[in-house]
Automatic annotation (TrEMBL):
Organism per entry: Streptomyces lusitanus
Cell compartments where the protein resides: Cell membrane
TM region(s), chain numbering: 43-60, 72-89, 109-128, 233-251
CDD domains in the record: EcfT
Mode of membrane association: Multi-pass membrane protein
Domain of life: Bacteria
Record's keyword annotation contains Ion transport: no
Keywords, sorted A to Z: Cell membrane, Membrane, Transmembrane, Transmembrane helix
Name of the protein in question: Cobalt ECF transporter T component CbiQ
UniProt KW Membrane keyword: yes
NCBIfam families with a match to the protein in the record: ECF_T_CbiQ
InterPro entries: ABC/ECF_trnsptr_transmembrane, ECF_CbiQ, ECF_transporter_component
One Pfam short name: CbiQ
Length: 253
């Protein structure tokens, strides 16, 4: 995990949220999501309060609303699933604009939309303020199994390598006048996929041999040991602590 690696979700900045150690932000987002999931679905005002808390974090991190909303489109499949719930769920029915809907389905749809959207928004803010390399360091700092951290590290690094290889192969096909227009061209695409697999496998072997020749024994060295002060932990945990207060009020009111 030596060299830096950026990603499209990350937004460079020098805000106080960007400056927090990655493991504190990971712990804060995990705790926030757990609190949100634990909130009763009937406490609608609580989810509005959670949204306000995330908006405050986004403001402190200088993450524009447009940037956040575009990244929230990743949850569109879950939204489609939630929209179908009132129509297919069983139980008590209610008429809405002349359409018979399930009460349990309506509550279920609201539950999925509210909690899913808040969870995705928190994850997007985490990714926007933390580089992938720092996230991996944070996972390592939180004592995640080293093998899982290594797998994630290799996946991040060589995902772009394979994508770039696919791009070069596509350019090579197009330079020879090839353009996929129908089923009869699937054979060429299948051969390209096979060639990509072989190239990726061979590159993986070469990388492994290079790592072994440099002393790799199955454990990645820790280059940057990042520690967090009490003030940084307090700043990071302010979000889940405030959310916990809202959750408790949601259960009692």
């Amino acid at each position: 995990m030596g060299a830096g690696h950026t990603h499209r979700l990350h937004r460079h900045g020098d805000s106080p949220v960007h400056a927090l150690p990655p493991h504190t932000k990971l712990a804060a987002v995990l705790a926030f999501v757990i609190v949100v999931v634990s909130t009763p679905r009937e406490a609608m005002w609580a989810f509005a309060a959670y949204a306000v808390l995330l908006a405050v974090v986004a403001y402190a991190a200088r993450v524009p609303a447009g940037f956040l909303l575009k990244r929230l489109l990743i949850e569109v499949p879950f939204v489609a699933f939630a929209v179908l719930l009132p129509f297919v769920a069983e139980g008590e029915r209610v008429d809405v604009l002349g359409v018979s809907l399930s009460v349990n389905g309506l509550w279920g749809a609201w539950n999925v939309l509210a909690k899913g959207t808040l969870g995705v928004a928190a994850s997007v803010l985490l990714a926007a303020t933390t580089e992938l390399r720092e996230l991996l360091h944070g996972l390592q700092r939180l004592k995640l199994p080293p093998l899982l951290v290594q797998i994630a590290s290799f996946m991040v690094r060589y995902g772009d390598v394979i994508t770039d290889e696919m791009r070069r192969m596509r350019i090579a096909r197009e330079s020879r006048g090839f353009e996929a227009r129908g089923i009869r061209h699937w054979g060429v695409l299948a051969k390209s996929a096979g060639a990509l697999f072989i190239r990726s496998y061979e590159r993986g072997e070469r990388v492994h041999l290079a790592m072994v020749s440099r002393g790799y024994t199955g454990v990645m060295p820790v280059i940057d040991e990042v520690a967090a002060s009490r003030a940084q932990w307090s700043y990071a945990l302010a979000l889940p602590c405030a959310a916990l207060v809202v959750c408790l009020l949601g259960w009692t009111l």
